[in-house]
Automatic annotation (TrEMBL):
Residues 15-263 form the NADP-dependent oxidoreductase domain. It comes from Brevibacterium permense. The lineage of its organism: Bacteria, Bacillati, Actinomycetota, Actinomycetes, Micrococcales. Gene3D superfamilies: NADP-dependent oxidoreductase domain. This is Aldo/keto reductase. It comes from the Bacteria. InterPro entries: AKR, NAD(P)_OxRdtase_dom_sf, NADP_OxRdtase_dom.
């Protein structure tokens, strides 16, 4: 498994597992747990969740799946902006820890920027690090301007990542956000690399996938992973889905592939507002 390095020096897999939509249907719980186990066996030990997903239900599924295996995973969760005051962030983290059945979250993110001052949220993150309840902290859905503003907040040097929407149909970050992050040695975590399945019927993407004998989803994930200092967290709802995602790691897109995908999904020619799902 290829890995990227966080500012702390610790490395994480470039391909992880997302859990958006997990915990919503009790009938799918067994498949969700089995999917996470399959990913762990394949080295996809980066596991992303959030208190927002199924009102904590996804965290509970992750906790069940990691029972007895917690040390195998690098767990990411997120605090909602409505909870992101100094005391609210700490309380939200403690609730997430309980649902996850663990004593620490490896990476804790502000899900998006809200009404609370960033200095209060960062101060809470620092307190949680000092207390051993989280190991690292970061943000999600921040554009390059918001990241620049964050630099002025005391304690912001602890920032570990920015998790953003990035895929073939959402290429806006290439114009300004990804270059900013590269210049500041900030790793990026891309969510929804297959656009919740909406791009999988594209003819060009399927042609590229066929040339490499993989699915369209794996080709789309491989396209995201072509970039350095970037990891991604596709959701998978079954072990077979996880195994299919993992085939993206063996795909090396050619110049012909990339040019064809650029024609089908043009890169940005100017700044675009950061999109989110």
């Amino acid at each position: 498994m290829r890995r990227i390095t966080l500012p702390s020096g610790e490395s994480i897999p470039v391909l992880g597992q997302g859990t958006w939509g997990w915990g919503e249907d009790p009938g799918r719980r067994g498949d969700e747990v089995a999917a996470l186990h399959a990913g762990l066996e394949l080295g996809m030990t980066l596991v992303d969740t959030a208190e927002m997903y199924a009102d904590g239900g996804a965290e509970e599924v992750v906790g069940e799946a990691l029972a007895g295996r917690r040390d195998e995973a690098f767990v990411v969760s997120k605090v909602l902006p409505s909870h992101a005051s100094r005391s609210g962030t700490i309380a939200a983290c403690e609730r997430s820890l309980k649902r996850l059945g663990t004593d620490r979250i490896d990476l804790y993110l502000l899900h998006w920027q809200g009404r609370y001052p960033l200095q209060d949220t960062v101060a809470a993150f620092q307190q949680l690090v000092e207390d051993g309840k989280i190991r690292y902290w970061g943000v999600s859905n921040f554009d390059h301007r918001a990241l620049a503003d964050l630099q002025d907040v005391p304690g912001s040097s602890g920032l570990a990542t920015d998790q953003v929407l990035y895929n073939l149909s959402r290429r806006g970050p290439e114009y300004d956000l990804l270059p900013w992050c590269a210049n500041h040695q900030l790793p990026v975590m891309a969510y929804s690399p297959i656009e919740q399945g909406r791009i999988l019927d594209d003819t060009t993407l399927n042609d590229v996938a066929a040339r490499h004998s993989v699915s369209a989803a794996a080709a789309a994930i491989a396209w995201v992973l072509r970039r350095d200092s970037l990891c991604t967290i596709p959701k998978a709802s079954s072990p077979q889905h996880v195994r299919d995602n993992a085939t993206a790691l063996d795909v090396e897109l050619t110049r012909e592939d990339l040019d064809a995908l650029d024609r089908a999904f043009p890169p940005p020619s100017g700044p675009r507002p950061l999109e989110m799902l």
